[in-house]
Amino acid sequence: MGGIADRLADVQQRIAEAARRVGRDPQEARLVAVSKTHPVELVREAIAAGVGALGENYVQELVNKREAIGDAVEWHFIGHLQTNKARQLVPFCALVHGVDSLRLAEELDGRAARLGRCQPVLIEVNLSGEGTKFGVGEADVIGLAQAISRLPNVELRGLMTMPPFPAEPEDSRPYFIAMRVLREKLREAGIAPKHCAELSMGMTADYEIAVEEGATLVRVGTAIFGSRDAPNA
Q1: What is the rounded CA–CA span in Å between residue 196 and residue 177?
Q2: Shortest CA distance to 170 belongs to which of 204, 201, 133, 208?
Q3: Cα torsion angle, 101, 103, 105, 108, sign
Q4: CATH number where 151 lies
């Protein structure tokens, strides 16, 4: 189907339609276009077509693309972040989606303090228990959220998850429902609403289901940029 502009328009339309199906304002679900392994030229094309936020899985790739493109878009880090690489992201990263330990949050806090800024983050949740995925288990989310919310230079914004790759989009729905329920548990535990407002969930295979179940950020790559050799986003 057409080029990047056409594919982007299709994804945006599908997001809006999914939101309306469940009575949500389409503006509540933001698109993060995942450009990992794709060249800068395609990223520029996506920005020209209207992409406002870009997500990358690898620190060096994000840094390189940001150096080439600048801050015309928000830069989101959506992969697994090693503590020793946190310093590279803090100067400019709009949102770190994959915080899965207090140690990493404290490193981000320290780096942000040195720069006089506050680093927005999400807690990555591993609902499936898959050993190949990062993230904290559901039972540990409240304690980690409480600890992170006390850090002065890190701003907890919510939660992120990546369910098992679905054979059918509907296969992901139980995980997305569980995330919405978990967000409510955070609020019931006294976590301020601002610290659990975001739900980053849904990719090319299931983003419409994610929007129906409350996603505020969907991370879509293949449906916008086309296929690639690396695993689908």
Answers
A1: 15
A2: 208
A3: negative
A4: 3.20.20.10
pLDDT of residue 75: 98
SS3 155: strand
Say if CB 233 and CB 194 are below 8 A apart: no
Q: Which of 173, 177, 159, 180 is nearest to 206 (CA)?
A: 173
Per residue in 64-105, pLDDT (tens digit) is 999 999 999 999 999 999 999 999 999 999 999 999 999 999
The parent domain of residue 117 ranges over: 4-225
> Under a CB-based contact definition with an 8 Å cutoff, are residues 125 and 143 in contact?
no
Tally of domains within the chain: 1
Would the pTM of this model clear 0.90, i.e. be above it?
A: yes
Cα distances (angstroms) measured from residue 147 to each of 152, 191, 202, 206: 11, 10, 26, 31
51 close to 31: Cβ distance less than 8 angstroms = yes
Task: Please report whether residue 172 resides in a domain.
Answer: yes
- DSSP lists the bridge partners of residue 78 as none
pLDDT of residue 131: 73
- Cα 65 to Cα 59, 106, 125, 228: the distances in Å are 10, 26, 27, 18
Any idea which residue has 């939660």 for tokens? 159
| pLDDT tens-place string over residues 196-205 | 999 999 999 9
